[in-house]
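Let us work through a complete example step by step.
Step 1: write down the sequence.
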Amino acid sequence: MTDGGVTVSPGQVLVFDADDTLWENNLLFERVIDDFLAWLDHPTLDRVAIRAVLDDIERANAAVHGYGSKVFLHSLGECLERLRQRPATEAERREIQELAVALVEHQVELMPGVADALDELAGRHALLLLTKGDREEQQRKLDASGLLHHFQAAHIVPEKDVDTYRWLTREHGFDPATGWMIGNSPKSDILPARAAGMNAVFIPNDNTWVLEHDELDPADPGVLHLTAFPDLLKHF
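Step 2: predict the structure and record it as tokens.
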């Protein structure tokens, strides 16, 4: 479903992703990675090769430990140790911590038009929020965003897979066919929601984490492709 003449009747359930949909998130991690790669200055591997090593480490750690800045810092330290073939020194660990200070201290930066769009959508539909990651970290961002009053409920989960979406429909008692998952991640937002029988709205973000990439079927009639968050108001 492309950005065409689709208009949805009132009374739908709109489920929103948070990171990189409501506010910028992975952009901050990418900035830290850029600084890390410059600081590491490996004698033989270029930045692309080092990034591939880091991506593999992050993929493995996410499967075991979940998501968030703590797991990310652990992955940076593990990457350093693998490339230098020795344990990280205390000085190196402090340097990594200092590189990532922005992740902890950064104020939540909403995507353009998010607050106004949610305010209008809440008058026509039931709004829910579904985000994955470290509970304390995600709750801090949710509280700082000033958006929680728009949602009937907000859920922080360790993973967003098809079972998560099936649980969500049972928890709130809605027909999946009347539900729409809205997010930037094919892997966590669009594909598992579709597998659970929900519709989806894909709003791409140029800074989406590489581990959240996946292929979408352009002919899938249950996925609405938009370019910006306020475009939701044209359809919902």
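Step 3: interpret the result. The chain has a mean pLDDT of 93.
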